[in-house]
Amino acid sequence: MSHPADHAEHTLPTETPTLTARAILFDMDGTLVDSTAVVEQVWSEFADRYGLDIQEILRTSHGVRSGDTVRRYAPVGADVVALTAELDAMERTRTDGVIAIPGAAALLTALPDDAIALVTSADRVLAGIRMQAAGLPMPATAVTSEAVTLGKPHPEGYLKAAAMLGVDASDVVVFEDAPAGIAAARAAGMRTVVVGNAGHLEDGMWRIPDYSAVTVAAVKDDDGGHLLTLTL
Fold first, then answer.
1. Of 39, 109, 121, 148, which sits most exposed with the smallest number of CB within 10 A?
2. DSSP per position, 59-77
3. Measured CA distances, 187 to 80, 158, 192, 221 (Å)
4. In the predicted model, what is the mean pLDDT of residues 26-37?
5. Catalytic: 171?
6. Which of 27, 34, 68, 88 is catalytic?
7. CA distance linking residue 105 with residue 101, whole number of Å
8. What does each C-alpha distance from 87 to 66, 68, 133, 201 come to in angstroms?
């Protein structure tokens, strides 16, 4: 027989995390934008063409530059550059089903534009198309696939975005959803909020289902920057 005190202990709400930062960096696909339908459609056509395992491709391609995935799975002798261009063109022309992650628009609107950046494995054209299709404002600072030498899981993109915003990695919070992106943010030494169910949490990591419960307060610093307080 359980005691009332025991029941109360188990039903107490968990503490709501509060994070302070000087900049917020966002991945795009799966983090701000739900483009699952388009991505699965395009990669399924690629897999069917070459007799590849679509589930394996989807498992490893999320958050990775398309060219890196084509290079990994295309048959020997295939024109990787031409195939990548073809797949990218397919993704740019398909926007049906592309929607914003709940709460993403409100959070982006509430944040100062000079304190946020997009860090995505999509190229600049596709990023613009997807953000517009989802009805989301495009941050002024964006590090897209063509802006880096090494894509996620390498930290180059996140480190470059922090430098562009003039902040240290320790003053950054990253929102990510894919294992490759989470690894990139962690390798950059940045605190990471996982959107969705990917991976396991370590120190300096938190998890949210979406942005519905996320709130932010921004205070201007004496040096012209911002102190951002996020409640998850």
1. 109
2. HHHTTS-HHHHHHHHSPTT
3. 28, 9, 11, 28
4. 94
5. no
6. 27
7. 8
8. 8, 12, 18, 33
Long-range pairs of 165-170 with CB within 8 A, sequence gap ≥ 24: 165/22, 165/23, 165/114, 165/115, 165/116, 165/117, 165/141, 166/225, 167/22, 167/23, 167/225, 168/22
Is residue 193 a contact partner of residue 219, using CB atoms and an 8 Å limit? no
Active site residue 27: yes
Catalytic site residue from 29, 68, 123, 177: 29
Residue 182, amino acid: I
Amino acid identity at 166: G
169/15: higher pLDDT: 169
Measured distance CA(146)–CA(140) in Å, rounded = 16
Q: What are 155-211's pLDDT values in tens digits?
A: 999 999 999 999 999 999 999 999 999 999 999 999 999 999 988 899 999 999 999
Band (pLDDT 50/70/90 cuts) for residue 7 is very low
Q: Which amino acid is at 122?
A: A
